[in-house]
Every structure is written in C-alpha cells, then in structure tokens.
Design a protein that fits this description.
By secondary structure, the chain is of the alpha/beta class. The chain folds into 2 domains: 211 residues, Spore Coat Polysaccharide Biosynthesis Protein SpsA, Chain A; 108 residues, no CATH class. Helix content is 42%, strand content 15%. Helix 6 packs parallel to helix 7 and helix 8 runs antiparallel to helix 9.
C-alpha cells in the first residue's frame, strides 16, 4: 500500500442533502495517495449516519467513516486528524465542494515545496449560481515564507478549509480545535500560522464554499457573537505564553480591528442595530490596543473594510445596517 499523502477530513452533521455532492467532487479528481475520513458527529436526522456507511462501503480502502457523539465541528475535525494517516490534512466541510483539479494541484505543490501550510483561494457560492473568487490570503507568494518575514499573513481569512496542513504541525504543537464554540478557526489557525516554518500560497480557488442560511455563523444567534472576545482573549494569552506578544503586537491589533471591531460588529448590526455588544466590542479594542487608530497595518484592509471602520468610528450604524442588508457580506 502506498503511503497516504493527503487525508481529507469531512465532518458530517445532518448534511445528508449535501454530502454526496461533496464526496463526488473529491472523487472527480486524482484521489490516488489520498484517504477520505467521514466523521459523523452524532447526526440526528436519521439519514446522515447510514449515508456515511453506504459511501464508505461503496469505496472500500478510500473512504473511512467514524461515528461519534456530538462534539461540534472542532471536535469532529480533531477526531479526523487523530485518525488520519496522511502527511497532510485537508479539512472539507460536508456542504462544500472542490474543483476536479484541486487534488492534483495540491499534491504538486506538496511535491515542489514541502511547505507546512499550503494556502489557496476560495470561491463563495450563494446557492443561486453566483460565484466570485475571493482572496483568502493576505500574502501571495509561491516561495516559502514565515509570519516573522510576512506578519501580514495573519490578516488572512482564518478558515481551516482554504489551506492544507502538514499533520505534524498539529501533532508537535499539541494544538487542536476547540469544541462547541464559535470562532474555532480563529482560535486555532492563527497559532499554526505563527508556528509554521514554511508557508506558500497558491492563486487558484481550490475550495467552493456554499453560503447557506442554516450554517452555524449565519444562524442569527446574536448573543453568541460575544464569543469573539473569548477567542481573542485565548489568542492574546497564547502569544503571551509564547513570548511573542510584543513582536506581533501591531498585527494582533489589526487582527482585533478586523475580527472584533469590524466583522463581529457587522454581524450584530444586521440583526440588532442597537445591541450593547457594539459598545462592548469597541471598549475591548480600546482597552487592549488604545493606539489602534494609528495602526500601520490598517493599510492592508480592503476598501470595504476601511469604509466600515470609518462608519463605525462615526457610529453611523443605520447606514452600515442598510449597506449590509443590501450587499450581504463584508469583503
């Protein structure tokens, strides 16, 4: 048996309507030297567990299924990475897909670079056929780099899905995804970015992300947006323990502006324009980064994010709410 190069970990929770399409997109590519792990995270729909079993039986030696009690997305990913045999990990959500050339492109990048993190772009899909490539990475460089050389990479979208990860990066660091929380990616991937000895980015959109109303971050549970503060507390504590807080202070300030002040505020505003969380987010930023308005990395924010920053500073909440009710997302 050839060694497994790439383990594709697919957490499954009540997503029977999407799972076959997800798996078919993987099987349409060059899956030699790959394995696929379906982690049924305690599905309750009466369909997904059996579907996972049937898909595994239909593809023996390629697709494995693990059934577990519900641990949330982070816990399901952890189960997959512990059971994986591959040199690299690819986390694929069960309602998303990849293009046919994705696996070939990724394995070629592994062969050429051997980087610990290989990042790529993603293609959002609103479910109505509208797809616009989205730049997920703040640094575009196909030769290996580290965040000490390019700290602005920390401003990349923190998704675990638009990168593949050398499995040893998780195993040697002991870093795992937290269970049953929001913002599990932010709490995890930023740390791995810093620890990685080599990162490369690819220009290709190798991940197709389905924006569906029932997904976790689009659930309309406004109060849970406060968990962004817990996530950022966790990050700051980790950087402090690593002795890296001073070195990364400026980029962490911009990361806080982006995720706490901008993105979380917009999510709250679209649901509750006078919610007290808006003030709490700003006070958090001012407490940890009192000089945030002069941060040099603000120049790296997109035009739309700079606009949101100015509108929040002026407390133009009604205008912001109108903009995002019509536009739909923060680019």
């Amino acid at each position: 048996m050839n060694p497994v190069v790439l383990s594709i970990v697919i957490p499954v929770y009540n997503t029977a309507n999407y799972l076959e399409s997800c798996l078919s997109s993987v099987l349409a590519g060059d899956w030699a030297d790959c394995e696929i792990l379906l982690v049924d995270d305690g599905s309750t729909d009466g369909i997904s567990p059996g579907l996972c079993d049937r898909l595994s039986e239909a593809h023996p030696g390629l697709v494995r299924v693990i059934h577990q009690e519900n641990l949330g997305l982070g816990g399901a990913r952890n189960t997959g990475l512990e059971a994986a045999r591959g040199e690299y990990l690819f986390f694929l959500d069960s309602d998303d897909t990849i293009p046919p050339h994705a696996l070939t492109t990724l394995k070629e990048a592994i062969r050429k670079t051997g980087a610990e993190i290989i990042a790529f772009q993603f293609l959002p899909d609103d479910g109505e056929g509208h797809r616009t490539p989205y730049c997920a990475n703040a640094v575009q460089l196909d030769t290996p780099f580290t965040t000490r050389q390019k700290p602005e990479f920390l401003l990349s979208i923190p998704s675990a899905c638009c990168r593949i990860w050398r499995r040893s990066l998780f195993l040697s660091s002991g870093i795992r995804f937290p269970s049953r929380v929001w913002y599990e990616d932010l709490r995890t991937t930023v740390k791995l970015f810093v620890l990685a000895k080599s990162i490369v980015t690819l220009p290709d959109p190798l991940y197709h992300y389905l924006q569906r109303p029932g997904s976790i971050m689009r659930s309309g549970n406004v109060a849970r947006n406060r968990e962004i503060l817990d996530a950022f507390d966790d990050l700051l504590s980790w950087f402090q323990r690593q002795g890296l807080l001073k070195q990364y202070h400026a980029i962490l300030c911009c990361l806080c502006i982006d995720h706490v002040y901008l993105a979380a505020s917009v999510r709250v505003l679209t649901e509750a324009p006078r919610h007290p969380l808006l003030g709490e987010f700003q006070r958090y930023l001012e407490h940890h980064f009192p000089d945030y308005r002069s941060n040099l990395y603000l120049a790296h924010l997109s035009r739309s994010r700079k606009l949101v920053f100015r509108l929040l500073e002026g407390r133009h909440y009604r205008l912001l709410r109108f903009l995002f009710r019509t536009k739909g997302r923060l680019a």
